[in-house]
Amino acid sequence: MNNPAVSAAPSTAERILDAAEDLFAAKGYSATSLGDVADRVGIRSPSLYNHFKNKEALYEAVLERLLAVFSAPLAELEGGPVTNERVFHWLETIVRQHHANPNLARLLQHAALSGGPHTNELIDRLFRPMFRPDAKIEGGDLTLFENSGLQPWAVMAFNNLVMSYVTMAPMYRDLLGQDPFSEAALENQLSLIKMLLRAVFEYKGGAAGAG
Amino acid sequence: MNNPAVSAAPSTAERILDAAEDLFAAKGYSATSLGDVADRVGIRSPSLYNHFKNKEALYEAVLERLLAVFSAPLAELEGGPVTNERVFHWLETIVRQHHANPNLARLLQHAALSGGPHTNELIDRLFRPMFRPDAKIEGGDLTLFENSGLQPWAVMAFNNLVMSYVTMAPMYRDLLGQDPFSEAALENQLSLIKMLLRAVFEYKGGAAGAG
DNA sequence: ATGAGAGGCGCGATTATTCACATTGCCCCG
DNA sequence: CGGGGCAATGTGAATAATCGCGCCTCTCAT
Description:
- The structure is a homodimer.
- Chain A is mainly alpha-helical.
- The first copy, chain A, has two domains: 10-62, Arc Repressor Mutant, subunit A, CATH 1.10.10.60; 71-201, Orthogonal Bundle (Tetracycline Repressor, domain 2), CATH 1.10.357.
- The first copy, chain A, contains eleven helices and no strands.
- Chain A has helices at 12-27, 34-41, 55-70, 72-78, 84-100, 103-114, 119-126, 143-147, 151-167, 169-176, 183-201.
- The longest helix of chain A has 19 residues, at 183-201.
- Chain A is elongated, with a radius of gyration of 20 Å.
- Chain A binds a DNA duplex through loops.
């Protein structure tokens, strides 16, 4: 009994992972010191080596835990027909996930900017599936959009929309005058993203034109 | 004569600024070492102190040079009536600027994630003007959209779109199979952004709805 | 020669990592 | 039941590398 995975007091290793996740996400791999991590947990830095081989292994473990959570929705989407409705639902799930835990987006952003260990693995596991060339939307008539060659750019744009909201949130806090992670802010962001997604689904062709 | 600002050989101070800009943008303030900067310039790190008081002053100078360039288009937009056409033109200018020099976006992203010196000043000078409550679009009939309360979110979204493209570019490089900063890629990104901006201008109300 | 700019040297702080050691709880054997 | 190990987990001290930064000297062009 007393299974530590079931809402019991978190183990030291888990508390280290929590602290490290926050710090890696905020400051990046190299700017995060093991002393900072240890301080948050309330132990001394050499004690970390009882739980993780070294700094890089700790970083790996943090990534692994996050990837397990965030890879799920895309796998689920691919488990069935890719219809408009299911894309909407998938996007909403992703947005809610990033609001619930902004750390993956932040880690990813650091990795994109500075590299760091396991960056290629991150790309492969999170993004590669979204850019597979055979990814088509069934049911709707998106052929016009698909043929425009803009589809990968759209995938990228919506990914940017979701991730950048999270990574830029600290800057937007006082510009918006409200907590970017509040329930109300989440609803607003969802409204906007869905409106833009509808625009893509209803794409009628034509480039830009200001008038 | 031999004015160093006019396409002559750049002075040492300018070469230091160039190197520091790239490194601060890639690795952030604290992860950038003055040794790295000096190496790029081809001098030893103590020599940097002949040109800049200390690391923070160097960072300040880098920011100042970037802000001078990137603040211009918004100031120009505000110099006249804010019409649909001029918003289109402003957005295109911004996108092209970020493609020409991705460093400001990257610097900003680091600041948003980790703080660092002068972050508040950055927010005030770049973003505050975009979120002024009296900012309205003249001419078009956007009242429906404005009344939806989503306007600041749209401003944020398009900012995210532009900045995140740049900050995530290293990750997208091999996913797209082409250089994200090529002319062709720029055109594609512009097409997509303009299409989404048109969707905002033609906003008809209504929330989401998948079918 | 004179002053700006480059380099050498080194101090003090921080970091990742290792090591020797203390403490704790648990299992097993007598 | 009791105690001898033993693994797990903590600690402080020590090490080697790196960093920001200041001091002092040298060099070279005007």
